[in-house]
Amino acid sequence: MDQEKDCEIQSWIKKEDPSRIVRKEGVICRTWRPKDSPSTTYEQIVLPAQYRNKVIRLAHDLPFSGHLGRDKTTQRILRRFYWPTLFKDVRLYCEACKDCQLHANHKRKAPMIPLPIIGEPFKRIAMDIVGPLPRTSRGNRFILVINDYATRYPEAFPLRNITAKKVAEVLIELFARYGIPEEILTDQGSNFTSSLLGELHHLMGVKAIKTSPYHPQTDGLVE
């Protein structure tokens, strides 16, 4: 196991409060409660050195990450992972980011214009299914539409069927490209409320939000 071979992690374990260290199926995790939400407890995977730079890149560089600043990038990572030098590593990474430096060097004073508060990209996504439609040459009859609440960026996935397994496969593909959101908003359809998707949400740490059966307008971004 990479964690057992990581000298930094082993040294940290000796110093850390034992009550904050848990093992989940052999994986060393750390419990953490954010200062702004002390009632919420996260179980962070204690990350070995060889994976840390990739996690920082995913949290900072990818299109849905939006090149957030040091503090927001750190908070995003802390919801899933921890390692002893996390704060220092994120600071150095953000300071060395060429895109961030480029934008920082081209800041100009401009009149203050009120802008709508969008929120953090890919923090909440909404899903809905369109169909059945006329069958395509590839046998697809449905479209799974996924929208990001912050940027309004849409993704559409053609599907032959709308089983929970197929929806789960699409979500895994989406998470691999953009990272894992905090919340997913859907209607009450059986393909969204199945035990399979419930287990996927649990494993990924995603909060599933369901619209009211009589008020699907809650999911208006996709509808």
UniProtKB/TrEMBL annotation:
Residues of the Integrase catalytic domain: 117-223
One Pfam family, short name: Integrase_H2C2
GO BP field: DNA integration
GO MF terms held by the record: nucleic acid binding
TM stretches of this protein: none
Record's protein name: Integrase catalytic domain-containing protein
Signal sequence, renumbered to the chain: none
PROSITE patterns: INTEGRASE
InterPro entries reported in the protein's UniProt record: Integrase_cat-core, Integrase_H2C2, Retrovirus_Pol_polyprotein, RNaseH-like_sf, RNaseH_sf
